[in-house]
Specification:
alpha+beta; YefM-like fold; three-stranded mixed β-sheet; 18% strand
């Protein structure tokens, strides 16, 4: 069996027979779906998926934020009145 990133797993045939039961058995934790002892994919909760997507977006944006925060050529002096006008 190739390297799994989760402690829980189910076979593709079990998953196709009863996906709801597989999800309930996982108790909200990620689990692998296997076909012939190879990982086809992972099932995660909607909340965990949201966290993963947010982390991916943050990793994508971090270099851009750092680059722009180091670029002082775009800095302009302004007043609070201008900001809220």
């Amino acid at each position: 069996m190739n390297n799994m990133l989760t402690e829980k797993w189910t076979s593709i045939s079990q998953f196709k027979t009863s996906p709801t039961q597989a999800i309930e058995d996982s108790e909200g934790r990620p689990f692998a779906i296997l076909n012939r002892d190879k990982v086809l994919g992972y099932m995660v909760s909607p909340e965990r998926m949201s966290e993963l997507l947010e982390a991916e977006e943050n990793n994508y944006l971090r270099p851009l934020i750092e680059e722009r925060s180091n670029d002082k050529s775009q800095i302009r002096e302004t007043s609070l009145e201008d900001l809220f006008a």
